[in-house]
Design goal:
Layout: H1 22-33, H2 47-70, H3 77-90, E1 94-95, E2 108-111, E3 131-140, E4 143-152, H4 158-177, H5 187-196
Antiparallel strand pairs: 1-3, 2-3, 3-4
Helix pairs in contact: 2-3
Bound molecules: zinc ion (ZN).
Zinc ion binds next to loops.
Length: 201
């Protein structure tokens, strides 16, 4: 929808369009013309929404920090689940995975070669040498926070240590790249280059 410069901005800030989102919209349009996939207005969050997401992320991180204090060999993945459930409720949040498409638990706990989304169980115990991914998502005041963290139980093999280090390095490199007007990947740029090259079928 096209807006006039003097209209009230579509974001409901109460400011005139020309003093609010006009510049951003023009830049988004420019990216769209260049062939990039651009976010729609619903995906562009206002200050209050960003603050809500930040708060939810803070609670989510706090839960992982608390898990770090508790996690040890001999506990079951269900123990981790019930701890996270109770802590999340106590902090005023809701575990986002609980009941999502029928998922029965408040967290995903994946041990060693389980890639992700391991379902907590009272018959699975952590033992020394395990590497464990704990994936927590929290709804707080209607906003979602979501992150996972790796935990190493006791002494782990150098092979497992290398895996954990490589994954950590990969995410650090990825985070370094995050910024305004950056893309999520090279795909769009690559397909644009290819589509402009008539000599490539
Ligand atoms: Zn605006």
């Amino acid at each position: 929808m096209r807006m006039n410069r003097n209209d009230n901005c579509w974001c409901h800030s109460g400011k005139k369009y020309k003093y609010c989102h006009l510049t951003l919209d023009e830049k988004v349009e420019e990216f769209s013309r260049m062939g990039y996939i651009v976010p729609n207005r619903k995906l562009i969050k206002n200050t209050e929404q960003i603050q809500g997401i930040r708060e939810s992320g803070r609670i989510n991180t706090l839960i992982l920090d608390e898990v770090n204090e508790k996690i040890t060999s001999g506990i079951s993945t269900e123990d981790i689940n019930s701890y996270i459930y109770e802590l999340t409720i106590r902090l005023g949040g809701i575990p986002a995975t609980l009941g999502f498409e029928g998922y029965p638990k408040s967290v995903c706990v994946s041990i060693n070669n389980e890639v992700c989304h391991g379902i907590p169980s009272s018959t699975r115990y952590l033992k020394d040498g395990d590497i464990v991914n704990i994936d927590v998502s929290t709804i707080y005041n209607g906003y979602y926070g979501d992150s996972s963290r790796m935990f190493c139980i006791g002494e782990i093999s150098s092979e497992r240590n290398n895996l954990v280090e490589a994954a950590k390095n990969a995410i650090d490199v990825g985070l370094e790249e995050v910024g305004p007007w950056k893309t999520l990947g090279i795909w769009v740029r690559l397909s644009m280059i290819l589509s402009n090259r008539k000599d490539i079928p």
